[in-house]
Amino acid sequence: MDIPRIFNITESAHRIHNPFTPEKLATLGAALRMEKGTRVLDLGSGSGEMLCTWARDYGIIGTGIDMSQLFSNQAKLRAEELGVAEQVQFIHGDAAGYVSDDKVGVAACVGATWIGGGVAGTIELLAQSLRAGGIILIGEPHWRQLPPTDDVAKGCLANSISDFLMLPELLASFGRLGYDVVEMVLADQDGWDRYEAAKWLTMRRWLEANPDDELAIEVRAQLTSEPQRYASNTREYLGWGVFALMPR
Ligand code: SAH
Fold first, then answer.
1. Which protein residue's CA is at the shortest distance from atom 9 of ligand 1?
2. Ligand 1 binding site (Cβ under 6 Å of any ligand atom)
3. Which of 44, 66, 197, 207 matches a 20 to 30 Å C-alpha distance to 117?
4. What residue owns the CA closest to ligand 1's atom 21?
5. Per-residue pLDDT tens for 170-227?
6. What phi, psi does 74 have (nearest 5°)?
7. Which atom of ligand 1 is nearest to the CA of 68?
């Protein structure tokens, strides 16, 4: 079981697989005012940076589930590196339908809401693991500016403009699902650069090391087109943030 190999190639050097910087992750952790020992569940935990740094900085106890074998292994190594291997566990597997045995104080899905079939389904899934008074975290894109055409939306790797909302509408949609938005931390364009531009050097080095790989042609094509695609679409039009929610 694994995610499509192309992501394991292009994001192999990422610690954070979204437009958050280490500073934004720390800001979010501080904003949540978690007590030491708070249990955190993270569906689609990637390389584990959120759980590992929050274990180090805020004393949380974490469980992460991720479908990438590579990212899951990197998460375990990171936990050892930061000296928090006793506090966090990483499970390699499909997080769809995952409900934790022990209820958690923070239930998160940061940039992987397809796991629950979209934002609403993911909130419903996370709510099943949440203790009373707990907080759900959803990391999700929104439009910074509304794309003028569906072609621009496609240039942001969306199917159409209707895939995402503007920020006020996204916030209102959480309310319609019965949740208060109690905190949010938004990514910025510098963070997008860290997420997207970091893939380019990784791709270039991978191509040099793997010229005959079956994905070499695809990676070559991406490296050629990505900087311009990104700068003219995603960087201008797509926002991203993590939203903290509590049931009303
Ligand atoms: N939350 C992490 C990773 C976000 S990228 C971070 O912010 O760094 C999306 C992640 O979802 C990837 O790590 C990918 O491997 C994982 N993923 C995709 N489908 C999944 C599934 N069905 N179950 C668990 N993880 C999944």
1. 112
2. 3, 16-18, 44-46, 49, 65-68, 71, 94-96, 110-112, 115
3. 197
4. 94
5. 999 999 999 999 999 999 999 999 999 999 999 999 999 999 999 999 999 999 999 9
6. -65, -35
7. 15
